[in-house]
Here is the input.
Amino acid sequence: MNPVIDVKGVVTRFGERTIHDDVNLHINENEIYGILGESGSGKSVLMKEMIMLLEPNAGKISVLGRSLNGISHKDAQELRSDWGVLFQFGALYSSLTISENIAVQLKEYTNISKMMRDNLVRSKLALVGLEPHVGALYPAELSGGMIKRAALARALAMEPHLLFLDEPTSGLDPIGARNFDGLIVELRDLLGITVVMITHDLDSIFSIVDRMAVLADKHVVAEGTIENVLQSKHPFVEEFFKNEYTKERFKEKIKDV
Ligand SMILES: Nc1ncnc2c1ncn2[C@@H]1O[C@H](COP(=O)(O)OP(=O)(O)OP(=O)(O)O)[C@@H](O)[C@H]1O
Ligand SMILES: [Mg+2]
Here is the structure.
């Protein structure tokens, strides 16, 4: 099976600073793939490279079967309409209503009628569990959890095959975060999409992530299922996972490790 995303030998530098030095990973169809690593390890930068907002200094990235190296403008536009993104910071345009926010890409990439657009917006609101009246509100009138859902609805507007989520549960309370995790799994199952999710939320990692990569020391120091990753002796991995608190909470999952 061909991976949905294949990252090979990626090197990223900003001036004198090397952020990635030979990053390799692959993401399979239909999985929820986690990208972990400490703050500043280059998770968001890697995601931006996958969605062509940044270009690595070396290496190869292919997404949905297309190499991003030297990609034509037309292919790039096609690819862009085939993924949805929930960014780490600032998800929505504050001057637009929620419905207008969700419709931004539909307006940009399609010629569908306003009626069709309105219908699609309503169905996306329902898909993420927001009531229809929320569409008329502005972002400032929503709670943090509702904003995340609205941003997710916008990411799904073009019915993408691939969804990128940068820290989707950060800033949510534990119940809101678990509800959001549940929604991501439901959407993956319902829509058959592949989800790439940057996270440091241990609950998400243990409960919804299928496979993951841990970024440290400028490359991937552990990759695979949680059982694979827990075998790693890398200090960051040990620090992150193997304290007593984690063991106690997830002992069912990690008892065989
Ligand atoms: N456009 C840019 N220009 C220069 N340096 C950048 C740029 N974007 C990111 N960096 C640097 O690259 C490094 C990695 O940043 P990145 O945002 O990927 O971290 P992260 O792993 O997502 O961290 P966090 O968990 O805090 O979100 C940081 O040192 C950051 O300052
Ligand atoms: Mg980040």
Notes: The chain has a mean pLDDT of 92.
